[in-house]
């Protein structure tokens, strides 16, 4: 036998399914303007719970695309800068790996006050050259999206300029604008 919940003066009370209610059980809640909640209500401020937070995957369901994370936005920003540079300098860059890591591994006896924003590891006979951009130190130095874009461009352009042995403003014309 299934049961239904009816809101009464003491809260939620169980009523056998199919049983008639007089309306007095729910009258207090309706007149007080209280809302009835489903099982997935936000109790004790812990955030939403239940099937409503899962992505919709069945046919006909509305799919809500989740917002990109900070890491995903940073990765796409670096990818945009790198692809613009790679299109222009592909013939000279050769095989270069570009990577994004959260933080650099700094030795305990590091004396410098600043943390590196990127790292350029020159390739050997078996290993390709690797340019690593560190996300957290760059984000820490920026207050907004525009500053972040400018700093990522500056860091990547300076590393590529060092690798190619050319001035940084030749690597990307936008570098001159950010440098001034």
Walkthrough of the structure:
The protein has 6 helices and 5 strands; from the N terminus they run ββααβββαααα. Helix content is 38%, strand content 16%. The strands form 2 sheets. A 3-stranded mixed sheet has the order 3-5-4. The chain has a two-stranded antiparallel ribbon with strand order 1-2. It has a domain at 70-105 and 115-179: Zincin-like (2-Layer Sandwich), CATH 3.30.2010. With 180 residues, the chain is an alpha+beta fold.
CATH class of the domain at 70-105 and 115-179: Alpha Beta
Q: Specify the oligomeric state.
A: single chain
Poorly predicted parts: none
Order of secondary-structure elements: EEHHEEEHHHH
CATH architecture of the domain at 70-105 and 115-179: 2-Layer Sandwich
| Broad structural category | alpha+beta
Mean pLDDT: 77
Beta-strand content bin: 15-25%
Cα gyration radius (Å) = 29 Å
CATH third-tier fold name of the domain at 70-105 and 115-179: Zincin-like
Main sheet: strand order: 3-5-4
State the helicity in percent bands. Answer: 25-40%
Largest sheet, in brief, is: 3 strands, mixed
The count of strands amounts to: 5
- Spatial separation of the terminal alpha carbons: 77 Å
Overall shape: extended
Q: Please report the number of helical segments.
A: 6
């Amino acid at each position: 036998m299934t049961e239904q919940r009816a809101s009464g003066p003491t809260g939620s009370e169980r009523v056998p399914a199919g049983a008639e209610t007089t309306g007095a059980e729910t009258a207090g809640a309706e007149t007080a303007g209280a809302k009835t909640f489903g099982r997935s209500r936000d109790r004790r401020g812990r955030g939403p719970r239940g099937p409503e937070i899962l992505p919709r995957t069945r046919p006909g369901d509305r799919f809500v695309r989740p917002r990109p994370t900070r890491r995903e936005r940073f990765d796409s920003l670096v990818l945009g800068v790198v692809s613009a540079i790679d299109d222009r300098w592909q013939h000279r860059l050769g095989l270069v790996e570009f990577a994004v890591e959260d933080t650099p591994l700094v030795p305990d006896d590091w004396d410098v006050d600043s943390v590196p924003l990127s790292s350029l590891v020159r390739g050997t006979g078996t290993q390709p050259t690797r340019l690593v951009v560190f996300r957290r130190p760059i984000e820490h130095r920026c207050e907004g999206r525009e500053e972040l874009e400018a700093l990522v461009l500056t860091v990547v352009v300076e590393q590529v300029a060092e690798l190619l042995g050319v001035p940084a403003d030749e690597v990307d014309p936008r570098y001159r604008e950010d440098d001034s």
